[in-house]
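Support reply, case 0932

Customer input (verbatim):
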Amino acid sequence: DMASLVTKPGDVVWDVGGNFGLFAFLAAHAAGPDGTVLCVEPDPFSVGLLLQTAAELPASYAGLRVLNAAIADVNGITRLVFAVRGSAANHLESVAGTHTSQAGRRGSTEIVTLSLDSLLDHYDTPNVLKIDVEGAELLALKGADRLLTEHQPIVVLECEDYNVNKASAFLLEKGYALYDMNMPN
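Our regenerated output:
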């Protein structure tokens, strides 16, 4: 699993777009009791499940904190669309793409947006940053200029096809080497 590949004992991990916490819980196991994991998730239902599971993690896991917010380029308020096809396809209303139209819409709610740079003022700086934000990848990256420039965590980015070129160019400009996990070694 990707979380175990990139996370070392004692690491600080930010899981942005945590959904039900698969990456976060695997990272908490890999980081161990000296590490910490911050799971940022906009869907209130998923946050409730994350909090229940986090409270039951064994002492051998990193502490897991859960933040109910969406990540974007600025701090503000926007709408989160709840997708018919499941919570993994929930997305910010402002994000347009093929995946959003195929996901359907079963409602929406207002949600606070925070930039990754603003999280630096409240949480330990991550060694590992996982981003899976259903089409809002560029917003998340644009709000992480200081994090990516000054701290350069390992970034695991799940990116919609229509954002790959721009996201890649952004990370290359910040000095990152890129690896496509879908390509054979």
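We compared this against your earlier run and they match. Two observations from our side: DSSP finds eight helices and nine strands in the chain. Residues 44-55 form the longest helix (12 residues). Please reopen the case if you see a mismatch on your end.
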